[in-house]
Amino acid sequence: MRIALTSYRSKPHCGGQGVYVRHLSQALVGLGHTVEVFSGPPYPELTDGVRLTEVPSLDLYDDADPFRRPRLREFRTRDDVLEYAIMCTAGFGEPRTFSRRVVPLLAARAAEFDVVHDNQTFGPALLRLAGHGLPLVGTMHHPITVDRRLALAAAPLRKKPTLWRWYGFLGHQTRVARQFPIMIAPSQNSVDDAAREFGLRAEQLVSIPIGVDIERFRPGLPKVPGRVVAVCSADVPLKGLDVLLRALHLVPPEVDAQLVVVGRHNPGGPTETLIAELGIGWRVQFVKGISDDEVANLLASAEVLVVPSLYEGFSLPAAEAMASGTPVIAADAGALPEVVGRDGSAAVLVPPGDPAALARALADLLQAPERRAAMGVAARARAVERLSWESTARATAEVYRAEIARFHRASARSDRQDAAC
């Protein structure tokens, strides 16, 4: 099959969307399909055999210069003006403007593709692709309405209107998602939540777990005593980093616990302020911009990975840690129990948003080397048995085939009805 894979932004190493695009496209090519990725910035790092078509934007939310003011010469199209206008009114316009930019590119080359797979853009313009003879499949990692609800609950009253405006894109995403013929979600929990939150029908949704690179993420490095790792793609309430920091403060000083956070935090922001208030700066280190191999080495050398998120549609870091032979402590929320298991062999589940329970779990596991070793073996076995990018790609390709067949049957039926009239 000839597949166009669209993604409005694709961070190469941090955040699930860029990782998903890179590994799914690689696995699909490995199965003999051709894949071309259409992405806005930041652009993904792709493997040989996968073509990238860059879809430039103003890139207003770049980590190095967020909410920047572009120079006048940067405005080339009406979509640039729209993107900036939405930002100036406290909104997030990338999904909408990306879809408006990418659809003409795809329409002009419609004969070159059998299917378009959209990675959580759900911009209104994408619905026009059917008129150009292109079947459409979507991936919803999880419904962002959950992020909005948690962010609003944590925000002070004065910031709630701005936050509500920021998540304004959910209005059109919900309407568009309801019109997608088929949607892939990475867990049954995400399937159930998407049906409830977005009002989707059961026949629109299919669960396909995200894979993990079990060759890159594998045991082998010596464990660093006391090393605890967390991967936070964004410093937002949903990810529960504040819960982990409060838990770390409650871990007794005699317990060796040194936290390495893969991700960023805003200088002078809430996270930095909380670390200073708790007096745990000596126990916390942030790293960002590291390669896949460096992430793999970090996870393999950790004694524990912690996923304190209040909600996850899957959790790739948990899967990668398990593949690395590292036990996991995770919040009992969203799809996390599906990923790590409830039987306790590979992971410890704790109530979400409970620093005291998380601190107890951390202290207990860090002081139990034999238990950690046994959990690491079980974690690796679970990842190898249940999660691989090849199996993800095979299941995704079956969804493509079914939707291509359905689309052309519907088109033929419509042609016959038009001829009869």
Explain what this protein looks like in three dimensions.
By secondary structure, the protein is of the alpha/beta class. It folds into 2 domains: 2-211 and 389-420, Glycogen Phosphorylase B (Rossmann fold), CATH 3.40.50; 227-386, Glycogen Phosphorylase B (Rossmann fold). The protein contains 15 helices and 13 strands. It has helices at 16-30, 78-88, 94-108, 145-154, 160-166, 169-177, 188-198, 241-250, 270-278, 292-301, 316-323, 336-340, 355-366, 369-386, 389-420; strands at 2-7, 34-39, 51-54, 115-119, 136-139, 183-185, 205-207, 227-232, 258-263, 284-287, 304-307, 328-331, 347-350. Strands 3-2-1-4-5-6-7 form a 7-stranded parallel beta sheet, with helices on both faces. The longest helix has 32 residues, at 389-420. The relative contact order is 0.12. The model has no long low-confidence stretch (mean pLDDT 93).
